[in-house]
Amino acid sequence: MNEPLVSIIMPAYNSEKYISESIESVILQTFKNWELLITDDRSSDNTQNVVEQYCAKDSRIKLYVNKENGGAGAARNNSITHAKGRYIAFLDSDDLWHPAKLEKQITFMLEHNYGLTYTSYQKFTGNSYLGVVTPPLSTNYSKLLSSNVIGCLTAIYDTEIVGKQFMPLIRKRQDMGLWLKVLKITPKAYCIRETLAYYRIDSGMTQNKFSVLKWQWRFYREVVKLNLLKACYHFSIYSIKGFIKHSV
Questions:
Q1: Are residues 190 and 238 in the same domain?
Q2: Are 101 and 15 contained in the same domain?
Q3: Residue 206 pLDDT class (50, 70, 90 cuts)
Q4: Domain count, the chain
């Protein structure tokens, strides 16, 4: 089977501490037909130099630099603009993938003709592995609206089924906005219940819970444009489910 091209979208901002580990986890993939598109969001540290060293060694890795700092959503969208792959995958510059992640997930999508998939993932800090997040086997638009069960570092969508889709330009919760857009096109997203990604919780990209809730409320009102009653309803469910998930 000819491997379809997978475009891996990685935003970066002051990521010099961890980005090498993230890039290496892509290089170690058993699935080899990928391009890694890194957009730097005007870092003030050595991030660009670190990435340029990888670009010089592997032509599949490409670096772009935003003209101004626009947030992770803008950085991801810039990389999506340049993406040439049938499949669009996401990995942040402080997270990691299991070596078989792409191979297993692309095979799963091809076998079932799924437009959007995701996987289980494990939280970690330093050298300590914490709880595994095990999402439901599937989700749809209405369910996802109350609970974002799709970890961004695990998601892949198929442009042949849903087209090339971009994230809303809000500073937080852009990924949830993208999944909802995709789920207006394809009825369900499906999960591989294997731990194929690792989510770092000790970096600057991890937000405190109050900040997350603030942005979630703005997301419902400004991006999804729910009325006050519906926003309150989904926000309440989201808060309860989020508390349960992060307590595990």
A1: no
A2: yes
A3: very low
A4: 2
